[in-house]
Specification:
The chain has two domains: about 5-160, Phosphorylase Kinase, domain 1, CATH 3.30.200; about 160-260, Transferase(Phosphotransferase), domain 1, CATH 1.10.510.10. It is built from nine helices and eleven strands. The chain has helices spanning about 5-20, 30-40, 40-50, 95, 100-105, 115-135, 175-190, 225-245, 250-260; strands at about 60-65, 70-75, 80-85, 145, 150-155, 155-160, 160, 195, 205, 210, 220. It starts with a helix and ends with a helix.
């Protein structure tokens, strides 16, 4: 066994220790199934490479779980808290509803049908979208690195507890609405992107700022469905604030004029 294989085996043993310590599983499914679903051989190798590059020093417990990915807390070698998003290689979700966000995007014209390639592309796409948004001044988690099916970014929250989403936030105000509309404006005009799935579920409210996340499905403003996606994002946000009792005189058309005007 050469040095790299030994290091990979050591990392695998550490990961399984973390799995048992932090119980990386839902109660309704078998623990071993989740271990194999998340930490397949290719993912372990990718984690090893990111660790070897000094990007991931420690991997902690799971902080969010979905059908397509798991998000873990961790730290860099400098002790910076990070979120490590691992896209599940075994999932079929990407085939069901995600291809439309890739195939219509001129930045990703060469796409194969291999599930590995699609998921690797999705991780790259989310990283590039986050980077463009961050550089445009949009409130988003700072992207740090990506490799294969793993995305590393700034952790939003304290003591590895994620910040509350807008849905979870207790005190909703009109000022928060205008902050979010400003982020949509910057995203469209500076980053030339549309989130496409914006809602109260993927906006943190942290340190008096709305921080938008989950950018995998974001598309270029040149996408053929750009107008539809932008209108849907605006409608989702306005409806949320109205449902929380905020008196809003703005219409979707008013906001579209503001963003595109």
């Amino acid at each position: 066994m050469d040095a790299e294989e030994k290091a990979l085996k050591k990392l695998e043993q550490r990961l399984y220790r973390y799995i048992k310590e932090y119980k990386f599983r839902r109660k309704d499914i078998d623990e071993r199934e989740v271990e194999e679903e998340v930490f397949d051989e290719n993912t372990l190798k990718t984690l090893y490479e990111l660790s070897n590059e000094g990007i991931i020093a420690e991997l902690y417990g799971v902080v969010a779980a979905g059908k397509e990915s798991r998000v873990y807390g961790g730290v860099t070698e400098d002790g910076e808290p990070i979120a490590i998003k691992i896209f599940l290689i075994t999932t079929a979700e990407f085939r069901k509803g995600r291809m439309k966000y890739i195939l219509g995007d001129p930045r990703f014209e060469e796409v194969g049908r291999s599930i590995h390639k699609i998921i690797y592309l999705w991780a790259q796409k989310e990283y590039r979208n986050l980077k463009a948004a961050y550089e445009a001044g949009v409130y988003v988690p700072r992207p740090i690195a990506f490799k294969n099916n793993i995305l590393v970014m700034e952790f939003i929250g304290d003591e590895f507890q994620p910040a509350p989403t807008l849905k979870e936030y207790k005190r909703i105000t009109p000022h928060m609405l205008y902050q979010i509309l400003r982020q949509i404006y910057l995203l469209y005009n500076k980053a030339e992107l549309i989130h496409t799935d914006l809602s109260e579920y993927n906006i943190f409210y942290y340190k008096r700022k709305p921080i938008i996340f989950d950018f995998g499905q974001a598309v270029s403003i040149k996408h053929p469905m750009a107008e539809t996606f932008l209108t849907r994002d605006i409608s989702n946000i306005l409806n949320f604030f109205r449902n929380r009792g905020i008196d809003i005189s703005l219409t979707v058309e008013d906001v579209l004029e503001y963003i595109k005007g």
